[in-house]
Amino acid sequence: MKRNRKNSVRPEVRAIMESIEKIKTELENARMNFDMATDESLIDCYIYEISSLNSKYQYYLKKAKKSGLTAEGFDEITA
Question: How many CA atoms lie within 13 Å of 51's alpha carbon, on the beta-carbon side?
Answer without folding.
Answer: 6
